[in-house]
């Protein structure tokens, strides 16, 4: 059961005003998990608005789901982290550098693949929805011509994460939609997390706007949907966070635990897991988190395992401003600051 009467709600409202001002249109949903109890509230909706059930773009938070799937399938004996791209995509055999990349390297952003596929610019017919026409044919063509950097160095890659999702589907003969629904959402009772929404869900899917209030389309991620294509609610992400702190179906929570392990140090207090960034606080405690954004959406999920606490922040407002002549200018991402500030107050540990 989700309630709205958490004492931190007034601070959350203050933080939204501080970071977003009085932007309109804007809807922000904040979810709180504390010792197994779930709370949800928000701003911007009409009186009586159901913030917990409003559907947002998950964007790169999707990567946490894709990596969870990787470990679920490994535990089922369907694949190994050391398996290579070439094992599942023999079409890329002419490019041995790509063939040698492992699934683990895709999940940790250490594959050497670039952030975006080179061929994306040739199929981008709508700069406000850049991935929508990038399909399997384009991906396979790019893999043949790609020249990755030497593996081992952390380089955030939407291409790599999307390729991982594509391989998971190829390996199992099931769509990524089916895998997420059957292996994660079903066991965790998450009813509104999907790549493609039903008509009744579309009615709760919020329109999205740039940082300066211009309407833009939702993103369609094409064949790279494993990098950022999910739609979700605060209600579902609270269930996902609850499982990540150890309260959920055993096969899922066991796989999630593997995604949490630090794999690569980024800075003194920051590391990367698989699908998660990890921030170490002043008392050497760790917060796992990920953000997500499109031109019209922004989101944050962060949790503290030892204290069984988590914060979700979702907004139908992106971190890019749309200027004349369709020029997009990056702006500050507010949801991450709000999320960390709330976690700091709740846990009394992180910087």
From TrEMBL:
<dbReference type="InterPro" id="IPR012338">
    <property type="entry name" value="Beta-lactam/transpept-like"/>
</dbReference>
<protein>
    <recommendedName>
        <fullName>Beta-lactamase-related domain-containing protein</fullName>
    </recommendedName>
</protein>
<dbReference type="Pfam" id="PF00144">
    <property type="entry name" value="Beta-lactamase"/>
</dbReference>
<feature type="domain" description="Beta-lactamase-related">
    <location>
        <begin position="53"/>
        <end position="317"/>
    </location>
</feature>
<dbReference type="InterPro" id="IPR001466">
    <property type="entry name" value="Beta-lactam-related"/>
</dbReference>
<dbReference type="InterPro" id="IPR050491">
    <property type="entry name" value="AmpC-like"/>
</dbReference>
């Amino acid at each position: 059961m989700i309630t709205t009467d958490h004492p931190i709600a007034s601070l959350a409202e203050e933080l939204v005003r501080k970071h977003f001002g009085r932007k309109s249109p804007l809807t922000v949903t904040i979810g709180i998990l504390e010792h197994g109890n779930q709370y949800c509230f928000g701003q911007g909706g009409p009186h009586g608005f159901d913030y917990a059930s409003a559907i947002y773009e998950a964007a790169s938070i999707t990567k946490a789901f894709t990596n969870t799937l990787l470990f679920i399938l490994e535990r089922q004996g369907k694949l190994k982290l050391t398996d290579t791209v070439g094992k599942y995509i023999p079409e890329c055999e002419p490019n041995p550098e790509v063939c040698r990349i492992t699934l683990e390297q895709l999940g940790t952003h250490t594959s050497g693949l670039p952030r975006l596929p080179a061929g994306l610019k040739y199929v981008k017919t709508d700069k406000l929805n850049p991935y929508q026409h990038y399909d399997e044919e384009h991906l396979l063509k790019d893999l043949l011509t790609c020249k990755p950097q030497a593996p081992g160095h952390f380089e955030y890659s939407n291409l790599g994460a999307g390729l991982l999702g594509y391989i998971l589907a190829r390996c199992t003969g099931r769509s990524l939609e089916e895998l997420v629904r059957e292996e994660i959402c079903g066991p965790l009772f998450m009813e509104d997390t999907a790549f493609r929404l039903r008509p009744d869900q579309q009615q709760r899917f919020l329109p999205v706007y740039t940082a300066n209030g211009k309407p833009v389309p939702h993103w369609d991620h094409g064949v790279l949907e494993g990098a950022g294509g999910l739609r979700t609610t605060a209600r579902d992400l609270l269930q996902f966070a609850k499982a990540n702190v150890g309260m959920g179906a055993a096969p899922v929570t066991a796989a999630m635990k593997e995604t949490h392990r630090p794999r690569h140090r980024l800075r003194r207090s920051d590391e990367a897991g698989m699908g998660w960034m990890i921030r170490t606080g002043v008392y050497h405690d760790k917060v796992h988190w990920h953000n997500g954004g499109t031109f019209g959406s922004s989101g944050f999920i962060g949790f503290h395992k030892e204290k069984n606490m988590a914060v979700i922040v979702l907004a139908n407002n992106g971190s890019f401003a749309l200027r004349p002549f369709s020029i997009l200018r990056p702006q500050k991402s507010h949801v991450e600051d709000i999320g960390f500030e709330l976690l700091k107050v709740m846990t009394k540990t992180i910087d």
